[in-house]
Please model this.
Amino acid sequence: MTDEELKNKTVETALNIMEAGNIPTEEQLRMVAEDEATKEACLQIQAATTVVRRSQEHIDVEARLQQFNSHRSTKKRITLIGRWVAVAAVIGALILLFLPDHVSEKKILSKADNDDTYTVFSVDDPQPQITLTNSDGDAVSMPEEEVISRIITHAVSFKADSTILNVEPMERLTMNVPNGKSLLVELPDGSKAHLHPGSSLKFPVKFLGNTREVELKGEAYFVVAKDTDHPFIVFANNMQVSVLGTEFNIAAYHGDVPTVTLINGSVRVSAKTAKNEMILKPGQQATLNAQSSAFNVRTVSTEKYTNWRDGYFYYDNMPVKDILLAIGRNYNIDVVCESPALLTERMRFVATRGSDLNDILSRLNDIGKIRAMKVEGKIIVR
Model:
């Protein structure tokens, strides 16, 4: 067999592996791992399709590939190049995802540990639990995989996992929802709070007085029971949100700029440190400027927040960083990006939050702007 024929056979073998679209067989994996020519051919296919994917929007793909491979003159090679494009949607990060662990993970981790990487999300507690805590710091773990409905009414005690949490009628409790968890809490007045991962909500055993006041750290979607005589007030960082009965989302994670997004009804937002307040209309989002205590208001799509409430990730033309951060929090897993410039890329991403993490990463990779993989308990993005 001539060198030319051998090269063509190697490329043909690589294409067959890439075209499979499914997890390669053990024999194919061994071939890629042990045969340098086959591995190089697969990597060239991956590189060619990446170039095409990023530049093909207004370019004749066949002409582009012919130019890219101008040193190849035979008709057969051009045909093979066309097949590369045909399988672009299914090859993804095949080499990185399916090479034996001792080959792929070592390479990925060594690069992820350099100074050019960016940590999008870092795990605080590898085994988080949802807890309910009283004013004395006594806590009970909440049942897993359950929606807590009307956790506190007019009772003075709460039972969870056969443990009694003693509370006083005037006491305020704190529901702590760590990263990797989410929870729907029904408050004493019937209002509901969908708590995002990494959030906590402080509320009274019973709402007394002229207002219904709660304190939020993190993020929550509120559905407030209407009571015109008793405004519902949420304190979050330096922001205060007052409502009578409506739906809205508040994001006030530590270190982030607090925002409130109105779904329907109306809310009044104000800052603790300034006499600055405003009324929002449905579809408006107010962001608090930490330096000036002024609000920046813009009109946004509310689908991201209502879909989250209903159990979905929904990001439309959003920065990659925001999407990766949400995934890190939802699955409580470290997220590291090898190419920080990718974090400003925008894309559309929709998935079920309860999906297996591998399915989530596969969906991300199918979009074609990034490559994400799980390696030794962390997500590596490149």
